[in-house]
Amino acid sequence: MSQFDLAAPINHNPKVHSEGYRVLKKLGGGSYAMVYLTELYNETDREKPVERLACKIIDIRFVPDEFVDKFLPRELKILRQLRHPHIIHIHSIYKKNSRYAERGDLLDYILRRGPIPEGQSRIWTKQVALALQYMHELEIAHRDLKCENILITSNFNVKLADFGFSRCVVNNKGLRMLSETYCGSTAYSAPEILKGIPYNPKVSDIWSLGVLIYVMLNKAMPFEETNVKKLYERQIKKNWKFKAKVESVLSDQVKNLLENILEPNVHKRYTISEVVTSGWMFMDHRTLHMTEMETLALVKAKEERRKMDEEIFSAKNDRKKK
User: Fold this and answer.
1) Cβ 134 vs Cβ 301: under 8 Å
2) Nearest partner of 2 among 96, 97, 98, 95, judged by Cα
3) 169-198, pLDDT tens digit by residue?
4) What angle do CA 120, 122, 128 make, to 5 degrees?
5) Could you tell me the superkingdom of the organism this chain comes from (predicted)?
6) Residue 296, class by beta-carbon neighbours within 10 Å (0-12 exposed, 13-18 middle, 19+ buried)?
7) What residue ranges define each of the domains in the chain, with the CATH number in brackets?
8) Has 56 been labeled as part of a binding site?
9) pLDDT of 24-52, one tens digit each?
10) How confident is the model at residue 318 (pLDDT cuts 50, 70, 90)?
11) Is 65 a catalytic residue?
12) Annotated catalytic residue within 59, 105, 108, 144
């Protein structure tokens, strides 16, 4: 990972220019990184940009050791594996440059436009759910699903981004590994996370998806509570309801879907496959079938999963023979 001085004016940073990027504007930032809109130039013609990219710059001199040693390497490892039309594509692993999402993130879009109509919410939910299904097939959980991590492209498709908390959920022996780390955003966290017990992060991803769907439809959180203990109590009592102004126009199918996703009992909560094949998705021909790219990504994930299972099975047999 290259080092940059985040305090210096980015347009005056020689390292950025030497790598073939011209910075256009700042898109945002967080605790450890700044994100800029950049243009990547052809090596032989510096006057003609090849494409626009979102450039995430991390100066590892100013971030905690745990982030550099644990979370960043894990994020980069996972991003190398993922190839899906609704997951942000990484252009360069060393600079972590990703394709620019022209319409910003979902939270900003909702704050500007208001609640998302049910039809559009259904399409975006299907795309996010397919991205999660792809990851879960590879035994990878996202663990930080929220509106800020859903990016909207120029043609109004969405892509899942930010894999800093993502992790594999099985070890090299094929055994499931529960998570014990409290990560992600509290408002999107499932009750099993808030309770502080080991949890299956794939199941918790589904809860976060439910919160995301609710936010799209209501421009509000399902549980308006900042105190963690009180938030947990409201979650397990299923103490939430739709905003009055939208409830009357929403379909019974989406209401039923959210009832089954925002289910505090992990054994009763919908799986990602049940979300993708729910009655809500069958209401619209646009979400009835997967695109060719979506299908191909899932087929490849299943094939990769089959190879992983075969390798684990073979390793187990080898250990038995010894």
Assistant:
1) yes
2) 95
3) 998 888 889 998 888 899 999 999 999 999
4) 105
5) Eukaryota
6) middle
7) 10-84+90-97 (3.30.200.20), 101-300 (1.10.510.10)
8) yes
9) 888 877 767 778 888 887 666 656 677 78
10) low
11) no
12) 144
